[in-house]
Amino acid sequence: MKRPVTVIIGVVVIAIQSVLTVVVAVNALSVLSKTAPGTEGLANAQLFAGLLLTIGLVSAAAIVFVARGRGIARFVILVVGGIQVLLDVASSRLTLGDLLWASAMVLLFLPASNAWFRSKARDR
Length: 124
Prior knowledge:
Elements (H helix, E strand, L loop, with lengths): L4 H29 L8 H26 L4 H19 L5 H12 L3 H13 L1
Helix pairs in contact: 1-2, 1-4, 2-3, 3-4
């Protein structure tokens, strides 16, 4: 069975989101490294930037497995993307990136995607 467009678009969107998340996290960490110690909220900001970096790297690794037809990796994307969106909701700032995460997660669970992941599992 050929890879459906829903999976291809989902993987591309998540790849873009992963790269952007890592870039934002590295940029935040570089700015925070120049901040004076003891500044209010510095520890929270460092934790947030580290969490973003982790989300970006985990989702980048997971898309490799999603592209190869490993269905379990979709759930990793679901959890990581969900955490990303929840962090933005908690900080009261929803972005276009959140919409992209949500759309990519939905695309990976549409019937055409589900059928492809099932066929890949049968092939193994």
